[in-house]
Structures are given as C-alpha cells and as structure tokens.
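Query protein
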Amino acid sequence: MKGSLVRQLNQTGLYRRQPWPWRDGNHSRLLVGGARYFPAMVESIDQAQERILLEFYLVSSGRVMDELIDSLVRARQRGLRVWFLLDDFGSRGLVASDRQRLRDAGVELAFYNRLRVDKWNRNFARDHRKLLAVDGRVAFVGGTGLCDEFLPAPQGAGWHELMLRIEGPVVTDWEQLFARVWRWCRAQQLTFTPFRFSNAGYGLADAGRDGSSVHSASSEFIAERGGLMKVSTCEGPQQQEIKINFRRRINESEQRLWLVTAYFLPSWSIRRALRRAARRGVDVRLLLPGDLSDHPGIFYASRRYYQRLLRAGVKIYEYRASFNHSKVCLSDDWVSIGSCNLDHWNLRWNLEANQEVIDPQLCRQLQQQLRRDFEFSHQISLRSWLARPLWRRLYEFVLGYLAAILLRIF
C-alpha cells in the first residue's frame, strides 16, 4: 500500500513526464502573515548547521532584510555556506550597502538575468520563485518577498501572504532546482549531500494509466508516513508544468475548487475549465485582490472576465482587508502553494515554482484559513456586477483590451 501509492502517482501519464517526482514522508506547517513566517525563517537560519539557500524575487532594504542579513552574517560566522540568488529586476530595492554587507560576510550572491538594453524582450524573463532551504532538511516556500510590505501595520503595509514550512525528502528537490538556476547565473555547479530522513519513502507515481484517482485511499497512508509532495515548476513557454497541473486539477475537481491569486489574467483554456467545473456542480471560488492591489491596472483588466465566470456559477470574492498577495489552489484533497499567479504573463516569462501537496490535515487548515479570508472579502453577485457604473465598464474594457494586446505582442 505504502510504496504502491507513491508509484501510482508517479507513473501516471501526466506526472511520469515531469522532472520532479512525488515524494512521501514530508511534513508541513502553514504560516499566515509576515509576523509569523519571517521569525520562523530567521529561527531556521539561526539553527542551521551546514548550508543555507535563498532564492527570492522581491527583495528590498528595510526591517525584514536587516534582521535577515544579521542572521546570515551569524551563520557565516559559524562557518556555514550561504548562497543567495536574487532577480536583478526584483532586487532593485536592495541598497548597495546591504549588498556589500552580505558580500563582506562571505555570502555568495548571484543575480538572475541582468538587465541590459540589448536584450530587448528577454529582459521580461524573471526569476519569480521564493525559497529558503536549510541543511537540505527544512524549506520555506510560498509567495512572500523579503521586504517590509509583508509586515503588519504600522511596521509595513500588511500585505496578506501564506508560506509553507516543509520538512522531508522533497526539500532535496528544492535544492536541486536552486542549483540549476545558480548554474545558469554563475556557471558554477553546486552539489549537495541529501539529508538522511528516517522512516521516509522516496518516489510517488501511477493513479493508473487512465488517470483514475487514488486520493480516496491515501488518508491512512499519509497519517502514517507524512504528506505527499512534489515540486511543480514553470520555466517560460517551453516548460509549463504548473499550468498543466492546474488545468488537470480544475478538470478533475469534484467538490471544491478554491483559487487565490494576486493577479488574475488566465489563459482561455483555464477560464473555460473554471466555467465547466462550476457548471458540473463544483464549489468554484476565486479570491482576488480588491482595489488595494499594488497594480490597479491589472486589477481592472482582470475584471473583464468576471461576467462569463459569474454566469457559469463561479463565486468571485475581492479581498478588502489589505492587498492579498497569496497564490493558492485548493482542489478537494490537493493543494498547491507557491510563487505562481494565475496570469498568462507569469506563465509565459517567469521562473515559477509551487509546492503540490496531498495531505488531508493541510487541506483542512487551508480551508479554515480561506474561510476567514472570505469573511474579509466582498462577494460579487451577477446582479451587482451588471449594475456597476458605466465608467467602471469603460475602464475595465480599455485596460482589458490593452492587456490582451500586450500578451499577444510579448
């Protein structure tokens, strides 16, 4: 039973062709808000014994980075190796003095896709992943940036975000994924010795060649052996694993499909899959940013899709407490949390990475958290949508049309 479930998932036609396998024996903890996950990340760094890997898109100087740099300096003083992979565009807010402080401490820095005028549209390709991995044993993944916007007010803007603390064999895959990008940036091969976990199985594989579900039989297995997890990635148009898995989960959902994204500009195939899921009776909910979005243009452009979704029975909520920066998909007993928004731009240009999880306990925790988020949101009804002012309709039409043109050009 134990090994067969893992093999069943990994040998399905969908997963068999993907670079990262399902692995069992993993444990996760959901961390909500920067006030919880930033201290947990610093604590893990302070407890590290061998190596620390960081890969983040949005990095800016401030209180968060001050504490993180202090922790990394202490790690270097203990003799640990530290690698820090930043995106050249996303890290513009990290001042020169902070960069020099990291270098002086011996932290190895790399910058993904340096901005250059002669690259033209290749400058759009960004590393949007978010990862902290410690000793090959613990990893933090999700959607946060290393900046004060994710701190609660008054220290920060109070952006709403979720992170997942992971412990188990899947951390090895996150390290290998990091090493691939590092090699591209620095032409340097990193080799890590995997952490030896006790009572942990490797490999997940076949729900049957026909794709039949094995999830109903997994609860006992997971309770004994820990959650099932796999790394899911996007690497531009040539590698669309996250999009493929999203679409399949939407098509296979039976009871619940709750999606949270900071930017909602999905492909036509994803929108059609959402409508079809709602029409067959699935509880389909979209939790999107309200007018507190950090990119109002994207917020209004995304609203051009509301009417057809609402008519199909999709429930749409706009978060009002703050800017909701989370990226989550909850489909029955399957969860995906990570860096990838449900927008065509992310999937086309960025390096993205999500953690897929099959774990009933995590699903229950996430369901409870999302229900709380729905309470701080405004649900849009079809009736209220059709009655919105003309100026809003024009604004949404113009921005939506411009977004469509830009996506076709780039």
Notes: The chain has a mean pLDDT of 88.
